[in-house]
Amino acid sequence: MTDLDRLSAEKYVLLTTFRKDGRAVSTPVWAVRDGDALAVWTASDTGKVKRIRRDSRVTVAPCDVRGRPHGEAIPGHATICDLAGTRRIRGLLKHKYRLIGRLSLLGSRLRRGEAGTVGLRIVLDQ
Q1: Which GO terms describe its molecular function (predicted)?
Q2: Cα–Cα dist 118/89, whole Å
């Protein structure tokens, strides 16, 4: 089983991005497999999106809902998806997380509008 298989099977992963001064900032997020990458979804105005715009380096580790890791952190690089890519990731999340995923995505769309969230694709370093 590859790192991508293991991480995409997790309910939550700990996404770590890096500030300008190199300090790590970690956040638990939902994750789903998107072809040869791991995909996550977040509000477009979050700090993690701003940090990824500046520096695409990230690490991803399996974790619980509170962000406590229970596995090794894997390095990778993240890209911010366009509208079509974000829609595809929303669809993948709806499929994986079923009712709670659909409700969360609907609530977010009602609060923020469609452009208020973005998908992030993470290609793991091999």
Answers
A1: coenzyme F420 binding; oxidoreductase activity, acting on the CH-CH group of donors
A2: 9
